[in-house]
Amino acid sequence: MDDLAYYRGLGFKAGIEIHQQLDTAKLFCSCQSELLEDIDTSILRRLSPTQSEMGELDAAALAEASRSLVFNYEANGSACLMEADEEPPHPVNSDALEIGLLVAHLLHARPVNEVHYMRKIVIDGSNTTGFQRTALFARDGYLEVADHRIGVYGLWLEEDAARRIEEGVTRGEERQATFRLDRLGIPLIELATAPDVLTPAEMRVVAESLGTLLRATKRVKRGLGTIRQDLNVSIDGGVRTETKGVQDLRAIPDYVAEEVERQRGLIAVREDLRARGVTEEDVPSEPTDITSVLEATGSQVLAGAITAGGVVLAMRLPGFAGLLKGPDVDGVRRRLGTELAGYAISMGLKGVFHSDELPAYGVTDEEVERVSSVLGCQEGDAFVLAAGPEGIANAAMEAVSSRARAALGDMPQEVRGARPDGTTRYMRPLPGSARMYPETDVPPVRITPELVAAVAEIPVEMPEQWIERISREMGLAPAQAEQLMNRGEDERFEALAKDHDPKLVGVVLLSVLPELENEGVSTEAVTELALMDLLSGVGDGLYSKEAMPQVLGRMLEHGEDARSAAEALGLGGMSLDDVASRVEAIVREREAFVRERGKGAMGPLMGEVMKEFKGQVDGKELSRLLGEAIDRVLSE
Prior knowledge:
Blueprint: H1 4-9, E1 13-21, E2 41-45, H2 59-65, E3 69-75, H3 94-106, E4 110-111, E5 114-115, E6 118-121, E7 131-145, E8 148-159, E9 163-171, E10 174-180, E11 187-193, H4 200-216, E12 227-234, E13 241-246, H5 252-275, E14 288-289, H6 300-307, E15 311-317, E16 326-329, E17 332-334, H7 336-346, E18 353-354, H8 365-375, E19 382-388, H9 390-406, E20 414-418, E21 424-429, E22 436-438, E23 445-446, H10 449-456, H11 463-474, H12 478-486, H13 490-497, H14 502-518, H15 528-539, H16 548-558, H17 562-568, H18 576-589, H19 591-597, H20 602-613, H21 619-635
Parallel strand pairs: 3-10, 13-20
Antiparallel strand pairs: 1-11, 1-12, 2-3, 4-7, 5-23, 6-7, 6-22, 7-8, 8-11, 9-10, 12-13, 14-15, 15-19, 16-17, 18-19, 20-21
Helix pairs in contact: 3-10, 4-5, 7-9, 11-12, 13-14, 14-16, 15-16, 16-17, 18-21, 20-21
């Protein structure tokens, strides 16, 4: 649903944060900003939360610390002592600041007089220092979308995080996470909009508009992972929630709508619990060890944990029955169980069982009754089971208890991760101001009026200008040019169209690549040279443009050039006389059908002809030859 009145009635508020890598050296050293697969050395670290300048500890930092991870950092040629936190940061990259000011200018934002770097506490392992350096450099901008403006709160210049390679793997008695330092320190522009987005669909429009504006500078990185979108959503009675990790812009409306419905469900759960007279004090703070009760269980999950020396813990949730996984009522779902599971998973457990979904997973009716009896469950009560190593299981159940109590009060502000199916998972509490304190190793950077004026003079071809020029110069329809811009293919299109038919290049970028992606073929590794080779094959008559998906698919699968792929597919060129003869033969074999249908035979026979040549001959040429052959039959 994307009805404006519906979302307005819910008190829908939404905005977006964009994190865009800049195409320049790292922010605080001269290292290249390239991702490499080789590893020269590795470092082990533990990170602990520190107090902000106000003496407070951030909730998100405390949540990460409770996971007790050891961090393994892999270093290569794209990292130096700065990334390893073994030397102070170098002066701020002036190119990165210039790019930031250029983006600020395009968004009508006001630069600050002086840039002051702050340390944002981050101890999830993605920064060797335990913090990320970030600085506000402009504020109070806006973006024109449809018939209204989307405010831009601010723009920040910050360092990107290390690359997560491996998550929470147990080695000996320690749980380790592995990161690579090549991405750490790549300059990022972060920009945050005001909550002016009106509907989930408009969130996608805003994301696309900001992305094309950033790319218009020609000074930002492109490709998977170089731009990230965080979606901020709330409704009346809910709270602001941030969804991270949304890569596909087409999926943005789904994630936003999903968050709205999730919050509607949690509001309904809160109202139901209060109507039942449940209070936060009713929720136990400690679990009960029921390992002995389920020693002979047939559940593989529970039995496996017990066999491995772990425990099975249970917690009674008074008055929660039917709210952990209940039926939809008036279009509102009640699924508190997934929320509880998310908190348990964040502590290192694989998940939990709860009574609304039992008996199942090998847990029998009799075992459910036995657990209920041990916990003292009454009618209307629910319970949660957790199995695993004792320390992890206890930490998980503590998190479950905390989240169950929160179901009765204000909804917790969370950072949630995007899943491929359009749902989200709990990651950590939403950070607050307690995570920030001044960076003492980076001196303030003055933004002079002369610098601002010089940046304002840098020529930038805006998306609408590019679309108009390409349509005029290359003969593309404006809609096609707009598609190229929205897909981020503008630069690649111009590079390929220098030596090849622009319309054919458009077919490759707008049809061939998406067709392969829809078939599950990854096109991330397709280089400009490979596409030039593919286009040259059409120009040289090796195969028709209709065969390009087959040829490129073969090139990607086997690492072949276009000629080898075409030969392997049996697409070798043939003379026009041979083609005409084969078309004539197809028509003669169906002569009675042609005489019966007349010109109407053209459509059905075109399918037969296309199948016969399998992309070896251009479709227009086949259509011409087929029409001539049909005319000859009809004239006899």
